[in-house]
Amino acid sequence: MPVRGSAARAAGVRRPAAAAGLVAALLVAGCSGARELPAAPAAPTPSATPPDDPSASPAPPAGRPSTVTIALAGDIHFEGPLAVRLRDPATALAPASHALAAADVAIANLETSVGSGGRPEPGKRYTFSAGPAALTALAAAGLDVAAMANNHAVDFGRARLPSTLRAARRAAGGEPPLAVVGIGADVEQAFAPALVDVDGTVVATVAASVADADPTADPTSQWAAGHARPGTADAMDPQRLLRAVRRADAVADVVVAYLHWGVQGDTCPSPAQRRLAARLVGAGADVVAGSHAHEVQGDGRLDAGYVAYGLGNFAWYSPGPTGVLTLTVRPPTAPAGRARVTDTRWWPATIGPDGLPRADTGSAATASASRRTALRACAGLRAP
User: Fold this and answer.
1) Angle at 349 between CA 344 and CA 352, to 5 degrees
2) Which residue ranges run through the membrane (predicted)?
3) What pTM was estimated for this model as a whole?
C-alpha cells in the first residue's frame, strides 16, 4: 500500500489522491480491500456531534491518524501576468506552495477552461483559457483536488470539454496526482467525489456551482452536465448535491463540500449561502467551503460542521488580500460519530502585481487576522 499523508511527507513523498472525480466507479483501496461508493440513502442519517473538548473523545482506531489537516484556497487562473508562469509548471505557484503542500489534503478552485479547441463563448465579457499545464502546476504546488464547477470551466464551449476531461484523467494518474471534481462526461461523474486516503482516513471532496443565483455572474446552468452530456456539476436545485454529500458521507470519514457560490464583491455571505450551508452540514458535510465572490468571507463553526463561505482569489490577475485556511480535523471514532474541526490556521497573504500570493508579515498579518474576526461575525459563525 502506498505511503500517504503525514507519513509520506516525512519520507519525502507526496501523498497520492486515491481517486479522481472523473472515474465512473470510485474505489478507495486500503490494506483490507476496497470500498465502493454506495447508492444514496433517501435521507440523511442522524449522527451524534462529538464533544467540543478533543480530549474527551475516545482514541481513533489503531493505525489511523488522530487528526488530518485540510488546506483550502480560493480561485486560481492563469490569465494576465500569470500566463507566462505555465512555461514552467513546476514553479508556477511557488510562493504559495508550502502553505498548500504542508497539509494532508489541499483543495482549491480552478477558474478557467482547460484544454484545446473550441471557441470563446459568445456574449461573455471574460473568457479564461489554459492548457493542460495548468493542472500540472496545481499538482506541483501541493494541491490534491481541483474543483472545476464554476462559471469559467466551459468558457470555450462544450467542444473543448473532451480535451478537458482527457487532461483531468492524465492529471489523476500523474506524479504527483491531482483529482479534478465538479466536471465530468455526465452528471454522475460531475458530482462524483474525489477520495483521498490519508493513512486510512478517507477525505471526500464534492464540488458544485450555484453561482447562477448571482445576477452579476455569467450563467452556468447552460453548461450543466446531464445524463448523456458533459459539463459541470450544477446545484441551482440542491437536491443532487445533497444526495452526493450523503453518498460521500457513507463511504468517507471526512466530507468536504466545495462550492462556487455567493455574490461577487460581497464580503458577507448571502442568505441563500447560509441556508444551503446549513442543509449541507445536515446532510453530512463536515466542511463547507467556497469561492466566486472574489472576496474573502467569514469562516467558523456551524452546528456539527465548519464553514468557510468565501476563500477569495488565490492566484489571480487582480491584487488583493488572500490566504490559505488549514483545518485540523478529528475523524469520527464511532460509526454514528461526526468528524470535527479541532483547530484552524490562517496563512495571511496578499496577491501582488504578478498575480501570485505572498505571505503577509508584521502589520499586514495583524490586519488580516482582524479582518478575519470581523468577517466571521457578519457570517453568523462561531469561533472554533
Assistant:
1) 160
2) none
3) 0.86
Q: Mark residue 156 as left, alpha or beta (left: phi above 0; alpha: psi -120 to 50; beta: remaining).
A: alpha
> Could you tell me the mean pLDDT of each successive run of 10 residues in the chain, 384 residues long?
34 36 33 38 35 43 81 98 97 94 98 96 92 98 98 95 98 97 98 97 97 63 92 95 98 97 92 96 98 95 97 96 97 90 97 96 96 95 90
**Bridge partner list, 323:** 348
Q: Which residues pair with 234 in a beta bridge?
A: 209
The residue to which cell 463563448 is assigned = 121
What the chain holds in terms of domains, given with CATH numbers, is: 16-23+61-379 (3.60.21.10)
Contact, 326 vs 347, CB < 8 A? yes
In angstroms and rounded to an integer, the radius of gyration of the C-alpha atoms of the chain is: 19
What backbone phi and psi angles, to 5 degrees, belong to 236? -60, -40
Alpha-carbon torsion, ordered 48, 247, 28, 26, to 10 deg: -170
